[in-house]
Amino acid sequence: MRRKNLIGFILCVVIFVTGFLIKGNLALYFNIAGLSIVLGGSAAAALLSFQVSRLRIVYMVVRASYTQRNISEDDIVNILINLAIKSRMEGVLSLQEEENETSILFLRRGLGCLVDNYEPHQIRDILNTEMYFFKLRREDSERILRTIGDFFPAFGIIGSVVGLISMLAGIGDTSVILKTVPVALTSTLYGLIFANFFFVPFAANLRERTNHELLLQKIIMEGIIAIQSELNPTILKTKLLSFLTPSARKADLVPLAKIRKRFNIDDSLMPAADPDRE
Fold first, then answer.
1. HEC string of the chain?
2. Residue 189 contacts by C-beta under 8 Å, 6 or more apart in sequence?
3. Is the pTM here over 0.90, yes or no?
């Protein structure tokens, strides 16, 4: 997990648990019967809904989204600029070494097409297909996470109903009521916690990660096609920087003084900087 996410997660958990401690003993909120109903029922529903192999893939994708380092857009741009320079100096076939060394699978795929001398429209078609099915697979994983997240509140309600039925059955016995009320109340609590504290955030994080990776893949595709057409590395850098936010490429902007001098523009005609621009 990324450091800032981990710090935020630990801080929020501490505040969350403190809220329970302020109004009573933490042990009051633990009930093995309610927990078994919620976890067992949700797990059974997930196994009935999805193949075990698919659930395993979702687990691996979620784990990777929290453990693997996010490659930044700047890193990808720099890699592509270096590849463009190497291609112009040593030829496209020299990129075969980079194809074997890089750990970015999509970039390896693109370099493979480049080394095999595919036409630009063929490279674009192949990489667009890769992006399309990558997005479909990620959306399917996100859908599974959200579906499982919906199971937990439902089984929390089921646990509450079970507790209420047992309570009504022993309406004249105080000891029975004291045993069954915690099941009725904690089951709903467990269902809401597991859904909104784990699975919904897992799905949201996966969507954010997917959008980021799709942006990287788009940058890689444009860079690979530009290298194939032997675009000047300086022009390629300017093109790829268009994918970044203005704040990320602020240092590469032409100074206003230079623009005024080149086009003989009066200072009063120059627009003021927009403070809301990213």
1. CCHHHHHHHHHHHHHHHHHHHHCCCHHHHCCHHHHHHHHHHHHHHHHHHCCHHHHHHHHHHHHHHHHCCCCCHHHHHHHHHHHHHHHHHHCHHHHHHHHHHCCCHHHHHHHHHHHCCCCHHHHHHHHHHHHHHHHHHHHHHHHHHHHHHHHHHHHHHHHHHHHHHHHHHCCCCHHHHHHHHHHHHHHHHHHHHHHHHHHHHHHHHHHHHHHHHHHHHHHHHHHHHHHHCCCCHHHHHHHHHHHCCCCCCHHHCCCHHHHHHHHCCCHHHCCCCCCCCC
2. 29, 34, 156
3. no
Per-residue pLDDT of 117-158, as tens digits, reads: 888 899 999 999 999 999 999 999 999 999 999 999 999 999
Rounded distance between C-alpha atoms, residue 128 and residue 218, angstroms: 9
Half-sphere exposure of residue 189: CA atoms within 13 angstroms, side-chain side: 15
